[in-house]
Every structure is written in C-alpha cells, then in structure tokens.
Amino acid sequence: MEKVTNGTYVSVDYKGTLDGGDVFDTSHGRQPIEIQMGAGQLIKGFEAALSDMELNEKKSFVLSPEEAYGQRDDSLTRDFPRKDAPEGMDPKVGQTVVLNSPEGQQIPAQITQADDEKITVDLNHPLAGKTLHFDIEVVGISATPTQQAAGCGGGCDCASDGCGSDGCGTDGCAC
Predict the structure, then answer these.
(1) Where are the beta strands (DSSP E) in 86-160?
(2) What CATH number was assigned to the domain covering residues 1-72+129-175?
(3) Which are the contacts of 98, defined by CB distance < 8 A and separation ≥ 6?
(4) Concatenated DSSP letters for 127-144?
(5) Domain extents in the chain
(6) Which residues does 103 contact at the CB level (< 8 Å), separation at least 6?
C-alpha cells in the first residue's frame, strides 16, 4: 500500500479548528492541498502527522502552538508614523496590510491601533499562540506533482498573509 514518505507529493483534504470548535480553514468545497513532503511547505507538526499515512487514511490530531506557529511574541509589534502610510490609505483596526522588508520579502501584519499620530501593527502570525485541531484525509500520493503550483506555497492555498483570503499557513502551509 502507498505510504506518505519524504519527497512524495501528497494531496490532503483537511479541516482545521480552534479549541472552541471554530473552523479557521478547510479544503472542503475546493481542491485539496498538495504538498511535497520534506520541502518545508507545512508547519512542522502537520507534516509529522502526515508522515507514514496511507492513501485514503484519515487522522485527527492536535498541535500545540510550538508545533504550529509558535507562541505570540509581544515584541513583534511596530509603530509607524501615520504620515508614512501610503497616500489615500485609511488604516482600520483589524485590517491586514502587507509590509515589505528591506530584502523585498512581503510580511503580513494586522493593524492593532490607528490614530491621528501613529499606526501600530502586529507581525505575529494570526494563529500564533493557538492550539490547532485538524481532521485530515490523504486523498493522493504521487512521485510527481499532480496540481499546478498555486498561491504562495507550491500548491498551498495560503491566503490572508498577502496571498489570498483565508490566512496563510492556516492550512498547514509555511508560505
């Protein structure tokens, strides 16, 4: 029987929920994610749970923050003078913006405070500090990709971290 091993391309249907049962991401209603095992496309705990699974096998597992996006780091907030915001921007608390690092990397940030003088952004991943619950099913195993790379992570449907709409990495991707 086919097993998930390092280097294989794995298609996975999944549902991710938080401690209270709220769904933070799911593949249901869209194409399963496809990742290459060992390529760093998944959070560590998600990839470890997939390892050695068989085709059509289902599994439920829970990831601590350390196995997922880490603990929140309060030092990852930044203040910017309001005058440095792009012209025409109307920053609102809760809004996600994309900042550019000096190296050109795009970094998602959530606005946590905005007044006439400054804008405060949080650079933590939206799921940092959270325990994640997953229900997954391996729906494909292949030696070569079966899907065209999409989003920001080679088959991952990474989203609100600047690549789409549902929270990059919320599907286990480390985009």
Answers:
(1) 96-100, 106-114, 118-122, 132-142
(2) 3.10.50.40
(3) 106, 107, 108, 109, 162
(4) TTT--EEEEEEEEEEESS
(5) 1-72+129-175, 74-122
(6) none
CA distances from residue 22 to 13, 44, 133 in whole angstroms, order as listed: 17, 22, 10
In this prediction the pTM is 0.74
Phi first, then psi, for residue 98 (nearest 5°) are -110, 120
Please state which architecture CATH assigns to domain 74-122: Beta Barrel (2.40)
Segment 21-79, tens digit of pLDDT: 999 999 999 999 999 999 988 899 999 999 999 999 999 999 999 999 999 999 999 99
> What sign for the dihedral angle of Cα 22, 28, 31, 37?
positive
- Report whether 111 contacts 119 (CB < 8 A): yes
Name the nearest CA neighbour of 12 among 134, 98, 114, 126: 134
